[in-house]
Design a protein that fits this description.
heterodimer, A: mainly alpha, 7 helices, B: alpha+beta, Electron Transport Ethylamine Dehydrogenase, 2 domains, 3 helices, 8 strands, about 25% helix
């Protein structure tokens, strides 16, 4: 398990070196997100929530908006079109198995609308939504 | 009849038994083991830090023409560093000083390598777990933003997200190319 995660991380690092220019979402991820969310989207317990499993929110009412309203996304300096692309990239990258079959990719217009309303009580809303997800 | 009381007798028996089992040499042997063993303990954080670097997937590929002096604040990788340069503190541009641990959570920016004219993604991981190094403070703020744009500000102690929050120094890892 440990060896596998190291190999995965190294593989991602090598891929990043080759693909950053050709793949803006991955470049944006490294520059704007990876510092906290790490190369593999894992949590730093008690400090930073995971991106792994983020797709679960899409199955809960308000979850699609929640993922864009969290501070790291809504308050980022990434323009709407790149942000929409980055959201879709992150969800499939870190949470492919949680994605609902009928998922419609985020659009720039939609992301621009949701981020007008940044979330303050992130932890409370997050816990509530994950509770709802467990009951599905 | 032995006139001593039973406490005296028991202690005498115990002392003779101990004297048969041990010698001054064996005492020295054990003391030596204890001293060497204790001296080795401070080495442990080194290997933990190395293991952690591997876990986080950070790597530091050799770059052709990676010229310059990592102990100089003008070294190209430091274009957006804010802290004590690790090479001045016993580490290197890509490794933390002995006794400190590299934070996984970090600040990432880009710098242009004058040797090949390309931009690279640079990760400024803080070295945590010891008091501030105090040597070679370097504060270059290319693309740095005010602290209220937290994720884009390098003026933050990133050890706050680490298990030991004391800040010692900072490294500058190359994550990959930022341009074509």
């Amino acid at each position: 398990m440990r060896a596998a995660s190291i190999l995965f991380a190294l593989g991602f690092g090598l891929a990043a070196a080759d693909a950053t220019a050709a793949a803006p979402p991955q470049f944006n991820y490294i520059l704007h997100c990876q510092g906290c969310h790490l190369a593999d989207g894992q949590a730093t317990p008690g400090k930073i929530p995971p991106l792994v499993g983020a797709g679960r929110f899409l199955s809960v009412e308000g979850g699609r908006q929640f993922l864009v309203r969290v501070p790291g996304v809504s308050l980022s300096i990434i323009p709407d079109d790149e942000l929409a692309e980055l959201m879709n990239w992150m969800l499939y990258r870190f949470s492919a198995e949680d994605m609902p079959a009928d998922f419609e990719p985020y659009t720039a217009e939609e992301v621009g609308r949701y981020r007008q309303d940044p979330l303050v009580e992130v932890e409370t809303v997050r816990a509530g939504m994950l509770g709802e997800y467990e009951e599905l | 009849m032995d006139s001593r009381n039973w406490i005296d007798r028991r202690f005498e028996t115990g002392a003779r038994y101990l004297a048969r089992l041990t010698s001054r040499r064996s005492f020295l042997t054990r003391l030596g083991t204890l001293l060497v063993g204790t001296a080795s303990i401070p080495l442990l954080p080194l290997s933990r830090a190395a293991a952690q670097a591997a876990d986080t997937g950070f790597e530091d590929p050799d770059i052709e023409g990676d010229a310059g002096d990592p102990m100089n604040c003008n070294y190209w990788r430091y274009c957006s560093i804010d802290g004590f340069m690790s090479p001045c503190c016993g580490g290197s541009a890509s490794s933390c000083p002995p006794g400190t641990e590299m934070s996984a959570v970090t600040w990432i920016g880009t710098c242009r390598n004058p040797a090949d004219g390309h931009d690279y993604l640079i990760s400024y991981n803080d070295c945590c777990g010891k008091s501030p190094c105090g040597q070679c403070f370097c504060n270059n703020n290319e693309d740095d933003m005010p602290a209220y744009v937290t994720a884009r500000s390098n003026n933050i102690n990133w050890c706050l997200a680490h298990s030991t929050t004391a800040y010692n120094s900072t490294v500058a890892l190359v994550l990959g190319r930022a341009d074509g």
